[in-house]
Every structure is written in structure tokens, then in C-alpha cells.
Write a structure and sequence with these properties.
Residues 19-77 form the XdhC- CoxI domain. The chain is an alpha/beta fold and 326 residues long. The protein contains 8 helices and 15 strands. It has helices at residues 5-10, 56-69, 106-120, 186-198, 226-229, 250-260, 274-281, 302-325; strands at residues 20-29, 38-42, 45-48, 73-78, 95-103, 124-132, 138-146, 158-163, 166-173, 178-182, 201-206, 222-225, 242-245, 267-270, 290-291. The protein has a 6-stranded parallel β-sheet with strand order 12-11-10-13-14-15, sandwiched between helices. The two termini are 27 Å apart.
Length: 326
């Protein structure tokens, strides 16, 4: 699983102050990752990614110097050139990466742990970084809780002001999206595992307790058993959730969907042909948020390929919303 911001700040519970954080603050052109990507360096260890492996070794050397002299560094990597003497070396990124390295002191460590606690509560966090280059490199970090999720559309990532003396950078970190899978059979678990590795938190819903033993899952999962709790208690679904219905039981799917339609929904994917979904809902006019058949049409066969098509569609939908917001 690729380590993202949420996983990195979770490491703050274990790491002491004094490690070095590298943040991708601006991208010109194309790159493997975008603004907000972060790495941590401590002793001879590192976690996270800034690129596809092109600049990490150099960042490690710079991080050692930053840790030693406690002075931040601003570095720019030009990946556009593809000759042997350049950073690109045929990597195909064809972008310019602007990276800021700084020591994670006690104050920044507390701020990162605050961001972690807010994200766990479902709150978005705006990271604002004021960077001074003159007379010497320094940073002022702020992590601001965004109360109204609609306000997220007001913020874009990257450098918003820059001159020879310094710059202002902002990035909005949002809570990890949640995937709720109705149907904890083998194919449902396959979708859930791939989604977890892609960055979702997971809830499995089923009426069969034997399918919901957390010990049988190789990844963290929340479970909800309809046999003991009932559909009427399934009220924790919110408008940010992704939901996939794939129990293979027509009546159970129908009951579950009838409960879902009482809530504001963002994405619901239903396994099987569209005609089956129309029969499940009793209408040929499907809401826009229902994707049936679920997944992108890539000719997938078998649980693993179907899981790939479902995750591809979920990512596409989430990115379309992000692009409309920025």
C-alpha cells in the first residue's frame, strides 16, 4: 500500500521530534504525485513518496543536512530534460517539482497530531505554510480545521504567492473516503481489500455473522451485521460514503437499497446488469448516484478484475468531484 499523508502523520505517535519532512509544494507540468505529497526521513529510514523514485535518494542526503543544521531547504527538480545529466533520465515525468524540507520540531509534531485527530473525526484540514527565504530559510505552519465541507471547494493546492523573499503554500487534506460493501462474500472482500490498499477505510455489511469475523480479514475493517442490528439501525451512512451492493441475493439487495435511498448519497454501485437494478428499485429511472452495472466497462472477468473495474470507477468519480472543486 502506498503511504500517504494520513499514514505518515499516524507515524507521529511513534516518531520523536527531530525527523525531517519533505513536502511537494508545487508541480509544473506532469508528475507522478501532486502538491501535498509528503515524505518523512529519520536516521537511515524514510517513508512516503514525492516522485516515482527519481528524487528520493537526493532528498535523503538533503534531509541529513537539514536534520544536522536545523535549517530548512527549498529545492527544485527539473524532470523535463531526459539526457543522462538531468533529473529526468527518461523517467517520463516531464515536470518541475518544488520541494520544501524542514525539521519536525515539537510544535510541528503537535500540529500534525492535531491534523490526524481532526481527520479521524471526519473534518477537513487546511495546511497553510508561510515560507521565508530571506534573510534565512524558515517556516510558519498552520493547520486549520474546515468546519463546512462545502468550503473545501474554496481551496486549491500549491503556491499562491512567491517572490525572492518567500512564498505562501496551502493544501487541503480531507478525511479518507469510506467504502461500504454490502455482501461479504469472496468478491466483496476482494473489492474491499483493493479499496483499502488504494486509500479507503472499509465497512463490511452482511446478514451472516460468519462472514464478518475481523480475524478473517488481512486489513482493518469495520463490520455491521444485519442479523443482530437490522436495517433500521444502519443510520451512520453519510453523503461522502461510497457504497457497493454485491450480496448476490436479490431480496437482501432490494431491502438494503430501500434503506439506502432514505439517506443523502454520493455513490452507489450495484453489481449485475442494469435490468436487475431496475427490478430492485421498481423503476427504470435510476438516480444519478447509482452506477449500474458497477465498474468501468473494461471487459473484466473474475473477482480480481471486477474489483479493479469497480475501484477504477470509484476513483474516476472522486477525481471528477475534486476537479470541479478546484
Amino acid at each position: 500500500m502506498m503511504i500517504g499523508f494520513y499514514e505518515l502523520i499516524s507515524m507521529m505517535d511513534e516518531l520523536k521530534a527531530g525527523c525531517v519532512a519533505a513536502t511537494l509544494i508545487k508541480v509544473e507540468g506532469s508528475s507522478y504525485l501532486k502538491e501535498g505529497a509528503m515524505m518523512l526521513f529519520w536516521e537511515e529510514n524514510q517513508a512516503g513518496m514525492i516522485s516515482a523514485g527519481c528524487v528520493e535518494a537526493d532528498l535523503m542526503e538533503r534531509a541529513r543536512r537539514v536534520a544536522a543544521d536545523r535549517i530548512p531547504q527549498y529545492v527544485m527538480y527539473n524532470m523535463k530534460e531526459e539526457d543522462d545529466l538531468s533529473w529526468g533520465q527518461g523517467a517520463g515525468c516531464n515536470g518541475v517539482l518544488h520541494v520544501w524540507l524542514e525539521v519536525v520540531d515539537d510544535k510541528l509534531r503537535r500540529q500534525l497530531l492535531y491534523a490526524k485527530s481532526m481527520l479521524e473525526k471526519g473534518k477537513s484540514i487546511l495546511h497553510r505554510k508561510e515560507i521565508s527565504l530571506m534573510p534565512y530559510p524558515s517556516t510558519v505552519n498552520e493547520f486549520i480545521k474546515v468546519e463546512d465541507t462545502d468550503q473545501a471547494s474554496l481551496f486549491s493546492s500549491g503556491i499562491h504567492f512567491m517572490d525572492h523573499e518567500g512564498m505562501v503554500y496551502t493544501h487541503l487534506y480531507e478525511p479518507k473516503p469510506r467504502l461500504i460493501v454490502f455482501g461479504a462474500g469472496f468478491d466483496g472482500r476482494t473489492v474491499a481489500e483493493l479499496a483499502y490498499k488504494t486509500g479507503w477505510t472499509i465497512m463490511m455489511v452482511d446478514w451472516r455473522p460468519a462472514f464478518l469475523c475481523k480475524e478473517d480479514y488481512s486489513f482493518p475493517v469495520e463490520t455491521f451485521c444485519l442479523e443482530s442490528d437490522g436495517l433500521s439501525d444502519l443510520c451512520m451512512i453519510n453523503e461522502r460514503d461510497f457504497i457497493v451492493v454485491m450480496s448476490h441475493n436479490f431480496q437482501k439487495d432490494k431491502d438494503f437499497l430501500s434503506c439506502l435511498l432514505k439517506e443523502p448519497l454520493f455513490y452507489v454501485g450495484v453489481l449485475g446488469p442494469k435490468e436487475r437494478t431496475e427490478r430492485l428499485l421498481g423503476t427504470k429511472e435510476l438516480p444519478d448516484f447509482i452506477h449500474s452495472p458497477v465498474g468501468l466497462s473494461i471487459g473484466s472477468r473474475g473477482p480480481q478484475e471486477i474489483a479493479v473495474s469497480i475501484l477504477a470507477e470509484m476513483i474516476k468519480v472522486s477525481r471528477q468531484v475534486t476537479c470541479r472543486q478546484i
